[in-house]
């Protein structure tokens, strides 16, 4: 059941008022896709399910803070899931998953595939195209694949500080280009 942007905005407003049917609508329409986003980042189903559960708790508790003037409800919801998944990785609950992630530079190929799927008319694609290919790969690996800076450094065989600088400078360049 796909919810429209208006449905999601109204569901968040209902959650903010303590109405459980709002959360139910969000769960039924977005839950499977949120699980997919989480799974792509944490790489293990049971951990991804935990991430989504914790994200829904945060959505319930913070729905009253959602401001539709700052962006679409769907973006707000998926930012919570993504941030929760990245927090799980940072908390170290992923030590046993390192072997499941390929140890080669080919990991950038998945991120590149996400870039290729963007429509040519999309401003984001135009701005990403302006970046050096290795800098673009580092940004996509971080924000599409959910790799940590250390994982990106290992896969691209460059120092950690270099990856951090690439990502920071690239985000500044993207902000300027998109603005």
Q: What's the total number of strands?
A: 0
Task: Give the SSE string.
Answer: HHHHHHHHH
At CATH's second level, what is the architecture of the largest domain?
Answer: Orthogonal Bundle
Q: In CATH, what is the class of the largest domain?
A: Mainly Alpha
Give the end-to-end Cα distance, rounded to a whole number of Å.
34 Å
Oligomeric state of shown chains: single chain
> Could you list the spans in which at least 5 consecutive residues all have pLDDT below 50?
93-109
- Structural class estimated from helices and strands: mainly alpha
Report on the biggest sheet.
Answer: none
- Helix percentage range: over 70%
Give the overall shape. Answer: globular
Total of DSSP H or I helical runs spanning 4+ residues = 9
Query: What would the CATH topology of the largest domain be?
Result: Rna Polymerase Sigma Factor, Chain: A
Count of discrete domains: 2
Cα radius of gyration in angstroms = 18 Å
The CATH H-level superfamily of the largest domain is RNA polymerase sigma factor, region 2, helix turn helix motif
Strand content: under 5%
